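The protein record filed below.
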Amino acid sequence: MEQSLTAWLLPALALLTGIAIGFLVARLLPNAAPSRTQRQLDDLQERFNSYQSEVVTHFNTTASLVKRLTQSYQDVQEHLSEGADRLALDEITRQRLLAALHSDDSSPRERLTPPASNEAPKDYAPKSADSTGTLDEGFGLKGKKS
């Protein structure tokens, strides 16, 4: 009897020990190493953060360059004004040069005017009352020859 009890007890204990070890390994391993999906998610998040950083840097650089461009334009305008003041031979010439220089600043830009009517554009060519339209059977055909 003792021999049959040992024959069943050892495999049962080995099975219980294996289940316990398997349970512990299964519980501890997912926390230790992230799964493939989690790694992909982390990679995508890192790429997105990098992209956002690049966008912010791009627009900051663009704003800085536009500011420098505006300042350079103002410096050129000031230089030309001073040159016109200094180099013009007489008052009339100086006034003409300054007026030409500042004509872009003072004159308003030409604006587009809205259409006179609110009628939608036609998708066909209008015709006079006595002519045939493009949908007429005889449109584009020459008269019959007898």
The helical segments are 2-32, 36-87, 91-101, 103-106. The radius of gyration is 44 Å. The mean pLDDT is 80. Residues 59-105 form one domain.
